[in-house]
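Subject: Sanity check before I submit

Could someone independently write out the structure tokens for this chain? I want to compare against mine line by line before I put it in a report. The sequence has 495 residues.
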Amino acid sequence: MNNVVEISNVSFCYKGSEAGLLDNVSLSFEKGKTVLLCGASGCGKTTIIRLINGLIPHYYKGDLEGSIKVNGKETKDIELFDLAGVVGTVFQNPRSQFFATDTDGEIVFGAENIGLVPEEIKKRADEVTEMMNIGKLLGRSLFDLSGGEKQKIACASVSALMPDIILLDEPSSNLDWSAMEELKQAIVQWKKQGKTIIIAEHRLWYLTDLVDRVIYLENGNISKEWNGEEFRQLSEEEVTKLKLRPIALESDLIRKFRNRDNEGKTEDVQEDDAIILKDLYFSYSKKQNFINRKYSPKDKDILALNIPELRLPKGKVIGVVGHNGTGKSTFLRACCGLMKKCPVRIKIDGNEYTGKKLLKHCYMVMQDVNHQLFTDMVQSEVMLSMESEDTAKCDEILDKLGILEFKDKHPMALSGGQKQRVAIASALAAGADLLLLDEPTSGLDFAHMEKVGDMLRELARAGSTILVSTHDPELLDRSCDYVLGIDNGTVEFFN
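---
Independent answer below. Compare away.
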């Protein structure tokens, strides 16, 4: 057996943490195999990824015991830049790995950095562009891309390096269904090239027929392990018991998410029972004179958002769906007044609000929650959203989201999924009329996705209206009363 990665008797505890995250873990990864790491948020998946790519111990500090070898060499003795040509990583938050400012430069950055000749760099860039179907993303600023589009560029950049080992940490977290299919095809191509692929993931259905081996982690230990065929034979009951997301999705659930049978209209919602949004016009173009005058049809081509009026039924959870880059995040930011040049007006209970006044009635959880974590303690972060501090209410919210044990921790010391729940807790504590959540379950395991869904429904029953942008068919099916389809900045359907 040709093992390219050997993890032997490894225990690790991050600096500043009281409890160890990995406890005497031993793992080996065979050359050319595709391995899935799964389990609840915070179980140690990302830590194993960081051990293999050398970020532990070279970047993330802590107490490390045991041995980690890549191609027979201890990672602690290899410089990160030397490992980069052998191990390529796509992180959970792709922004954290970007070095360039435009897509073309980012795709070839790694290849340039290891000193390849220009002809080889161009060849690799062309091959990756075709393989991952990202031609329409070339020549664009990274800052203008959606979260899913950034994830595609991160995958392309790693692929252009052509490393022997490819690590993917929650690679589908911000991807729509089409993009997930493209990612799946990229993994298929990498398998054909003989790459060793290690994937830490919560969404499992798109990987089920690709994996050769599945490792289930629990509290920093390897709890279960299956080969690919054994994993595919798990029953729905067994998967649910393990608190994993489905390994297969029912056809009617897919239909709900992708193809709505009856295209309703928000105009059908009675005005007295609605929150009404007007003048949702916005463009990333410099030509924005239309904002200061009445909208004209000739402005259509420069608009990233073009919604004259939208009626949202009060006290309901409304799922917002659409392809990556189609305007969902722009729509949510505009609704709560974060797009300064958007002339949006919101009517609630007969009163109309614009500008900064919107912020008192709307609260948004962003796709990248790192942008909205400000304090040095989880409990303080949540109470920051309250009109008056209420420790008991704060603890109740944290408990319902399964993060009460972290209330005295620094938010930035938590895992991606745990940070996501802290931001959601802040939104719940705000008690706004209109709550907007951008991919709130992207980094969450099945159990915590259910908890978030339950909390959303509870808030809706209490009177809040909730818009939740999502690529999660499970969340849509379990928690959303309506589905709003956005396509190129316009309302495609509502029902």
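---
OP: Matches mine. For the report I'm noting this point. Residues 94 and 151 are 6 Å apart (CA to CA).
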